[in-house]
């Protein structure tokens, strides 16, 4: 991670001349034209041909066999350059060398002047490069109208389906991602053979299984198992699937860049009275300073500072009862704020694009996902309340207690269901169900997740998810003997008194599953 800290504010590229000397195998001139000066002239050529200043219109009509051959060799040389650069882009992307891939792509588009609209394979490579830089929407926009020629160019079609499926997966449109994975897999199974088929079968199998898991389709366990069976034992995880929003540069920083990064980090740490001790631990003036510093780093997307804090074992294990970081709650939940008692709580409540990798880093350094010093609220509770699905996924995969209870007896699934009734985002609800959460769990008042969906939200999405489960108790009664149907009408009457619209979709969903007065 140290390299990540040092390199974060840098383009991460050497000059083209330096890169040419270090890595290129295919010769290239220093200017933007594709000079052939380093190659011998064809036999019979004269020095005059080297500096020919004849008017082009007259030269066309006087073209000698030698000049025609020169033009053919120029064209052949350019095609070799294009082929080489394309293969380099694909290779660098497959190994997670994002900056190197972008470098070769720039040469294709700028120096070799390849028109992306005339080159479908370059279009796909650009989309894959966008994916590697976490520019998911741009990758999708580039490929949304891609014209597939599966019969004549099956591998090209497979690559397009895969790049688009990855972009949709990262945009959290899991259903569309799964559909593209299935379409790509159909092309692979029907039209590809040998090692190429094996490669794409593994990639699509991995991605299709992931999308099913994130959709929470536990009823399709056999299908997920089938997709997993397509993954060959030699398959390595596509590094693009691990991209969150930043990639470590593959080019070492210069001395000047390294010193500038260190100076900037030291200045940021000084703002919060943080410094490094002789043993590498972060020294703090007050314990709560690391909480302030991490919250500020996440809010400002300051990757070096948050990385220093989260990668430190001492910081990762700190807890603070009187934490300075709060998360406000909305009605009908309790009218007060939650305290973030560990740095994992801080990350769980963050909207930062770096929150998930920081959560994993804290866990790797010893953070306990069960730690709670404020009313039983764990980081997973906060994720459910804040709809932070990325961090929730990290926590669940690292063994977070999905049945942890708050002081009022609410497990995370209660907050996930209630929040989804407001924003229709059921990702965390599905994750919890897939992980085995009890959907009929009651809090101290006897309310279940289904009860919480009926209060004041307008989305039927979480109700649909819950009612699809065979174990759901549709007629469960709370401590006050009210069923979910009773809670719905109690609050529906309040809406109507205020002149607000009826919650028709919820009522329709309840009746469709046989829940009536």
From TrEMBL:
InterPro entries of this UniProt entry? Ankyrin_rpt, Ankyrin_rpt-contain_sf, TPR-like_helical_dom_sf
**Gene3D superfamilies, A to Z:** Ankyrin repeat-containing domain, Tetratricopeptide repeat domain
* Polar residues bias spans: 54-65
User: Does the entry feature the keyword Membrane, yes or no?
Assistant: no
The ANK repeat ranges on this chain: 375-407, 408-444
The annotated region (Disordered) lies at: 1-81
SMART domains membership? ANK
> Which superkingdom, per the lineage?
Eukaryota
Q: Which residues form a coiled coil?
A: none
> Which residue stretches does the UniProt record annotate as biased composition, category Basic and acidic residues?
7-20
Q: Which UniProt keywords apply?
A: ANK repeat, Repeat
Q: What is this protein called?
A: Ankyrin repeat protein
């Amino acid at each position: 991670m140290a390299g990540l800290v040092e390199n974060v504010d840098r383009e991460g590229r050497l000059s083209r001349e330096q890169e040419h000397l270090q890595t290129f195998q295919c010769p290239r001139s220093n200017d933007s034209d594709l000079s052939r000066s380093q190659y011998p002239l064809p036999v019979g050529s004269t020095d005059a041909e080297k500096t020919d200043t004849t008017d082009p219109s007259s030269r066309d009509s006087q073209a000698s066999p030698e000049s025609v051959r020169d033009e053919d060799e120029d064209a052949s040389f350019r095609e070799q350059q294009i082929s080489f650069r394309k293969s380099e882009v694909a290779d660098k992307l497959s190994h997670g060398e994002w900056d190197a891939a972008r470098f070769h792509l720039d040469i294709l588009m700028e120096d070799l002047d390849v028109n992306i609209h005339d080159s479908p394979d370059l279009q796909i490579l650009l989309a894959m490069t966008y994916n590697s830089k976490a520019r998911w929407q741009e990758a999708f926009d580039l490929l949304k109208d891609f014209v597939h020629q599966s019969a004549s160019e099956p591998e090209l079609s497979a690559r397009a389906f895969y790049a688009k499926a990855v972009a949709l997966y990262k945009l959290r449109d899991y259903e569309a991602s799964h559909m593209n994975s299935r379409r790509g897999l159909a092309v692979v199974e029907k039209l590809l053979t040998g090692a190429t088929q094996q490669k794409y079968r593994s990639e699509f199998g991995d991605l299709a299984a992931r999308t099913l898991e994130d959709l929470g389709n536990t009823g399709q366990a056999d299908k997920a198992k089938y997709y997993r069976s397509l993954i060959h034992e030699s398959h390595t995880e596509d590094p693009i699937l691990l991209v969150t929003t930043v990639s470590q540069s593959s080019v070492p920083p210069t001395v000047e860049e390294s010193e500038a990064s260190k100076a900037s980090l030291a200045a940021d740490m000084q703002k919060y009275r943080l410094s490094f001790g002789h043993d590498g631990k972060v020294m703090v003036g007050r314990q709560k300073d690391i909480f302030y510093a991490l919250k500020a780093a996440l809010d400002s997307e300051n990757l070096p500072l948050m990385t220093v804090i989260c990668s430190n074992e001492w910081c990762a294990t700190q807890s603070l009862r009187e934490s300075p970081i709060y998360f406000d709650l909305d009605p009908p939940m309790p009218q007060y704020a939650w305290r973030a008692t560990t740095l994992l709580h801080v990350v769980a409540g963050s909207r930062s694009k770096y929150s998930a990798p920081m959560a994993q880093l804290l866990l790797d350094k010893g953070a306990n996902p069960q730690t709670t010093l404020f009313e039983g609220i764990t980081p997973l509770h906060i994720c459910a309340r804040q709809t932070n699905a990325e961090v929730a996924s990290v926590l669940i995969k690292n063994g977070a207690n999905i049945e942890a209870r708050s002081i009022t007896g609410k497990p995370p699934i209660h907050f996930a269901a209630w929040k989804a009734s407001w924003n229709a985002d059921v990702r965390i609800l599905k994750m919890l169900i897939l992980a085995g959460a009890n959907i009929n769990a009651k809090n101290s008042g006897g309310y279940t997740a289904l009860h919480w969906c009926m209060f004041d939200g307008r989305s039927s999405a979480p109700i649909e998810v819950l009612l699809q489960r065979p174990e759901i108790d549709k007629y469960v009664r709370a401590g006050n003997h009210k069923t979910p149907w009773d809670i719905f009408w109690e609050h529906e009457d309040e809406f109507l008194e205020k002149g607000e619209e009826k919650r028709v979709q919820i009522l329709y969903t309840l009746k469709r599953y046989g829940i009536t007065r």
